[in-house]
Write a structure and sequence with these properties.
about 30% helix; 2 domains; about 25% strand; 7-stranded antiparallel β-sheet; Beta-Lactamase
């Protein structure tokens, strides 16, 4: 008799089938199955833990002001470096066919010599300034991940680093800037200025309690177009985002030391970093590192600029190289990972860091040893007033000989015809003096006539009670006329005239638009003459 169990007993479930199946397995198979299950559970657990750590690191990157690359366990992105050639500033700096900078526009008292390995942004003399700004801006995509490296040298005749000034700046602005009073350019800039300040103006009583920084000092100063926002009187203490002291950046005694600074910017992570290599030997030190950098202070399409200026205290600033790079992920997208960017640049994990926290603590710490009191600005002003007083007694003008002679010329010469009369008169007197020279002497001279001795005969100097007039004639008949004070010797005047003639040959005679029968003025030559003469007076 058949018995049907389908209605008389409960239906068997999946668990019952699984249990029955496992019971039928051998002991070895059961152990193998248990090992597989344990491995799967372990793998799932580890993966979840990694995701949690990754999320924590991402949160840390978005909120912390102090970033430590060693704490990041995010898988590095594959990153490629793209060199922005159109922003290069390096030898050869000038296109010899046009005598203009290859990628930059310039202004001020800059100096550059043929085949030189550097640009003299400002010479070591008072009241000088110079600036360079890129002809092209950086695109928004290229400026999203940026590295700028600058090789420069601050040097001069002064042995003490507390008696130099004023400093230099690296700019990231939304337009090219023009001449002004903030390290040589206008104060109402829109963008970011990185200032290397070499003189402590904030040594006055009203700022002494708050400004205990060591100088030279580097700071980052944002501006949104407000004129006069940067306060020179307190060295921008109240408007800086961050900064650090950079001792020994001044090359006293002209030892040839070239320093470097490196700027790293990642817009998506609001990350900004500034490193300094004082000796230029690859020993980078972190100066500024911010993870909450205000990205609106860094223009989307920035121009890069350099500027420098001197006041009553001086030093020279030479620029050797400026190189700019952008970065892309392997898929062509913008960089999103700070750790990956720093690794691709080659920032060492063990680099020493002068963190913002330590700088802040140093500012607010009481009981710091007071720095040795430097020569104050007011004392320098008194010395300058004393020198001006002596010049005023001697020449009747507080501006010395140049002021006296300038006022004399302004009163005497009313129009260009007066200049032509003086030039013609001096030319005639020079010709008469040449004719009075004995023929036998002239004959011997003509055999050995060279550009360096072409002025041996003829009028060379006219001396008055107040000034001297020196005349130098070249082999082509060009005459260089100098008006000087009485203490200038013929040898000194000849050397200066030689420098001016060399500049004339470089900037005028070699200019493709120059014609002997149709002379025109060249701006570069005028600027060079002003630089040479002003440098001699200093």
């Amino acid at each position: 008799m058949d018995i049907d169990y389908s209605h008389g007993s409960p239906k068997r479930g999946y668990f019952t089938y699984a249990k029955t199946g496992i019971n039928r397995l051998s002991k070895k198979v059961k152990l193998l199955l248990l090992g597989i299950i344990i491995f799967i559970l372990y793998w799932i657990f580890i993966r979840r833990a990694d995701k949690g750590l990754e999320k924590g690191n991402a949160l840390f990157q978005g909120t912390s002001n102090q970033f430590d690359p060693n704490q990041s366990s995010i898988t590095d992105e594959k990153i490629s470096r793209i060199h922005l050639n159109y922003l290069d500033l390096k030898k050869p700096f000038v296109d010899l066919s046009t005598l203009k900078f290859n990628n930059y526009v310039n202004g001020g008292n800059m100096q550059i010599e043929r085949d030189s390995d550097h640009v003299c942004l400002v010479p070591d003399r008072s009241s000088a300034l110079g600036y360079l700004f890129s002809k092209s801006f950086i695109s928004e995509s290229d400026s999203s991940a940026l590295e700028v490296e600058l090789d420069f040298r601050i040097h001069g005749h002064e042995k003490r680093s507390n008696l130099i000034g004023d400093g230099m700046a690296l700019w990231f602005t939304d337009s090219q800037l023009h001449q002004g009073d903030v390290f040589g350019v206008q104060s109402d800039y829109k963008g970011l200025g990185i200032f290397i300040d070499t003189y402590k103006n904030g040594d006055r009583k009203e700022y002494k309690s708050m400004n205990k920084r060591g100088f030279p000092y580097i700071s980052i100063q944002p501006n949104y177009g407000n004129a006069g926002q940067y306060n020179k009187d307190n060295d921008g203490y109240q408007t800086e985002l961050d900064g650090c002291s950079i001792h020994r950046v001044y090359d006293a005694g002209n030892q040839g030391k070239i320093s470097k600074i490196r700027v790293i910017f990642l817009r998506k992570k609001a990350y900004f970093r500034l490193d300094v290599d004082i000796n230029g030997d690859g020993s980078w030190q972190n100066c500024i590192q911010k993870m909450n950098f205000p990205v609106d202070a860094f223009p989307l399409k920035p121009y890069i600029g350099l500027s420098a200026e001197t006041g009553q205290l001086t030093h020279a600033v030479d620029i050797y190289r400026l190189q700019t790079s952008t970065f892309r992920a392997s898929n062509g997208e913008e960089i999103k990972n700070v750790h990956s960017l720093l690794n691709s640049i080659g920032v060492s994990k063990n680099q020493q860091s002068k963190s913002t926290q330590r700088v802040s603590e140093k500012r607010n710490k009481n009981g710091l040893r007071s720095m040795k009191r430097r020569r104050t600005f007011s004392r320098l002003q008194r010395q300058e007033k004393e020198l001006k007083r002596k010049d005023e007694e001697k020449y009747g003008s507080k501006y010395g000989f140049l002021g006296w002679f300038g006022s004399l010329v302004w009163k005497t010469l009313k129009n260009s015809n007066d200049y032509l009369v003086i030039a013609s008169t001096l030319h005639g007197v020079h010709a008469i003096a040449s004719k009075l020279t004995p023929e036998e002497a002239m004959g011997n001279y003509e055999k050995s006539r060279l550009p360096t001795n072409s002025n041996r005969f003829g009028l060379q100097c006219i001396t008055t009670a107040k000034f001297k007039i020196f005349i130098h004639q070249t082999t082509t008949g060009l005459k260089l006329i100098l008006f000087t004070s009485n203490d200038v010797s013929l040898i000194q005047a000849t050397q200066l005239q030689g420098q001016l003639y060399k500049s004339y040959a470089d900037y005028v005679l070699k200019n493709p638009f120059y014609r002997l029968d149709m002379p025109i003025r060249f701006r570069l030559f005028d600027d060079k003459v002003l630089t040479v003469v002003t440098g001699y007076n200093a």
